[in-house]
Fold each of these.
Amino acid sequence: MSKLNGKTALITGSDSGIGQATAIAFAQEGADVVITYHTDKEGAEETLRQVEQHQRKGMVLQVDVSDEQAVAQLFDKALKEFGTLDILVNNAAVNGSGARVADMETEVFDRAIRTNLYGTFFCSRRFIQHRKQQGGKGKIINVSSVHEEIVSAGTAEYCASKAAIRNLTRTLALELAEDGINVNNICPGMILTPMNQEAVDDHKVRKEKEENIPMKRAGKPEEIARLAVFLASSDSDYVTGSSYFMDGGLSQLMGQGA
């Protein structure tokens, strides 16, 4: 279990859900981890505890990825502590509000775009600058969503931000190929995380939603984390600009029943 031995990863939003599972999986594979949170310090400290259980080094930092200066400070602190960063996982995000566009406040739309899209941009830019200073190489993994392809009413701000991340990923893949920096997307479907808290808490709600998934079950954060390990490791050195859908077949239903 050493696919990431000697590597250091920064994972945004690693206080819970997919980010937390990814941090733990990376530590199991030998990586040190910079753990970030926005408000859930207790969750981030639990992630750190589990990283350290695997005899890896971690640090916890608070950040609002929508804030350019806060991201700059995050990288300054992480680099001061670890000296280098080899892997970036852009995972921090806010969910859709449920409001339709005609009723949506500008601040709601802006919050999702700034967190989900600008946050990915701010972190990626600083990571790329660092990797170029180190002579290249490195991995960027963007946690997007099936909603970069599948839209639903009441989530315009979320769907728009995730679709934009897809093309940001693809553009970066072209820009960075000669530097040996791989950039890929993971597109989760229904995963049992705080973003799907109602389904986590209510078995009836979960079963109703799972009926729409060909595999008839929700995914687990640990399943996403295993894909992240592949994309962070040398196993994926010839993979860039790709979107990996992990959704139990949900995205295959687009257009069905039309």
Amino acid sequence: MRRIRWGVLGTADIAKTRALPAMAGAPSATLAAIGSRDLARARAMADAFGAPRAHGSYEALLADPEVDALYVPLPNHLHLEWSVRALEAGKHVLCEKPLVLRSAEIAVLAAARERTGRHIEEAFSYRNHPQWAKIRELVDLGAIGEPLAVHATLAKQFHDPDDIRNNPDKGGGALYDLGSYTISACTQVYGRAPQRVIGALDRDPRYTIDRLSTAILDYGGRHATLSVSSQGGPNAWASHQQFTVLGSRGWLACDFPYAHGRPTACHVFVGDEASAGSMPTRTWTFEPVNQYALQFERFSRKLLGDDVPSWPVEDAATTLRIIEAIFASARDGLWKSP
């Protein structure tokens, strides 16, 4: 069986702790090379995960003819440059979220995609979890009626001053990091951007990033509310996560909807006229899966020509326009259109 040969651009923690351990569980993917600006770090990571080659520069990795696709876990502000350069080097690209920092930059990526004929996606691993296929199915089949309101919360504590999440110049803050999950989830339900948004932010006085962000998204008679915090919730290995959908005839809820730092069993609950309070009528249980492995497998199969789900970069533009509108709303105290 042919497999896609992957290279990794950089030695970020998410690559070492989440992505590369998972790649071994993707039958259609194989790790071919690591590239770093420090050759010793590249070699150490290559040795740790069984990559046959290590490169002492990003450029050398891009020039490697034995690499088909690149995983890009660089700091947020570097995503645009190196994704474009990777596409122009003939590589397919799976780039960590947020894909870029400004919605206007999506057009640059789309142009590079069209020019090179290579595939690029935002690495939202949560979308590969089978619970989201079930959520989509339940919504499409009208199991809870028409969606009227989505409620989404995501929080974790990031206090390290060296963490890029606390650097506003590198795309830090709760909205870019955690908010992108909740906004993407709203788009999964409604399938479109809201007509307008209004938001409120609380900023950290030391780092100046938004550490608590709350917004209402108005879809025209349909709503979504989200709250994300980079300094809230339990200081545990897993972030605090909530996702519910209020429907015209029932409700849907999840107990672990977004990022699975460790493969963990989870559930989708549905309540209808037979349920009481928050006790569900029906429950779907999902055994632990590694959604990072599922992501590499799905992406690789896409490149091999299989008919699998995929998300164009234009989907990321919707998320970024909403983030920009929330920032503008919080600044001006007014409703804003994405």
Amino acid sequence: MSYAIETYDLTKIYKSEEKTVVAVDSLNLNVEKGLVFGLLGPNGAGKTTLIMMLTGLTLPTSGSGKVLGYDIVKESLQIRRKVGLLPDPFGFYDHLTAEQNLEYIAALNDISKAERKKRVKEVLTAVGLYEVKDRKVGGFSRGMKQRLGIAQALIKDPELLIFDEPTAGLDPEGARAFREQVGRLSKEGKTIMLSTHLLFEVGPLCNYIAIIDRGKLIVQGRVRELVEKMMVEEGYRIRVKATGDVQTLITNIAQLNEVSEVKREGDTILIKANRDVRSDVNKIALSLGLEVLSLQIEEPTLEDLFMKYYRRGEVAEHA
């Protein structure tokens, strides 16, 4: 198995005269290459501290980790050469143009002068900012600065991209543009890490997630597998639309052993069951001479997953 990110009991403790804060608490993560990985948690969960350790910007108190196979302490320079980071805030020079900012960042990354111009043009074009390359960044909107942030993360053609709260403060159009950009990068085979508490904006992009709170890992896994597990644990919700004597259909469905509840909601029937009973419902409808117009499982959303495991973590914390 080839991992982009792996941590082993990774811990970061901040100490002052007044208090001790465990920002990241014995974290064990394994993220395969090529995934869009969502690091999810409320503000203060330890997400940014984890990113700082993974990119060599702060040292762990204990534990260890690797990024793209490199040790986060001993080989942080190699990591920074292969990782593109979109921090929050962005940290551009407002008195420089978009092009000048990127040329400066390219120089810091030891990109040759001959290659620099080419790379800057490529990434500005990729994020839709080439036409405004000569404008000073101080006059850019939040959305434009965010796109420039993606451009600087791409400048060294990284294997792994890490975006910290990438849609915070963006308008709906800016958030949509970001999601489209991530989709394109994912198709190119990049591994992308999205650290956020704004699940509804970037959550649907993720095919692998880890939920953390107060520095502790609550759950991690492929979204598809977690969704299926949640349906098995909490039951299936199935919506049916059919023509004809719907009340007779409801009565017959209610007699299935696996069905815990069945009721009418508007023009649909809502079924709650401890397994997928769609084939049974279809057979019942056919036997009654009814036409089934639609028969769909309502799958849990990423928000449902987050609340399930986040609440479970809270219960464990106070147990």
Amino acid sequence: MQGTGPAVCLGDDIDTDVIIAGRYLRTKDRSVWAEHAFEDLDPTLAPRIRGAVIVAGRNMGCGSSREQAVVALREAGVVAVVAESFARIFFRNAVNVGLPVIEAAVSCTDGARIAFDLDNGWVEVDGVRYPVCPLSEKMVAILRAGGLAPYWRSSR
């Protein structure tokens, strides 16, 4: 599985409340979640993440275990999330909804060109290649299918 996009760089400890604030969870309208992604961190961020790769530091997705956080990112058009480390529930929720998560410590600036190849285990930032923590074959298959539900439907 491969992908590319411009980087949107964030810091450490980006929690799920920052990704999608609790006040938007009264609706099940995913487009509302996408529209308001990262609103409390930076109100201009949601439109900039369409087609982008989010690059974060340590502990990406910490906080509550709300699946809506990864759904908001996927619905907003995020290509993948690269981080030095992830909260485990966020990581698994991302795989389950088909949002590629890549564990790697990379240096970047906003707008840097990111490319990744999960099958061969690398992420590249402006031509500099970094190794990634490999995903299991099953996780890559789930991501390739578009998430856990499509994976199970296709394997029946």
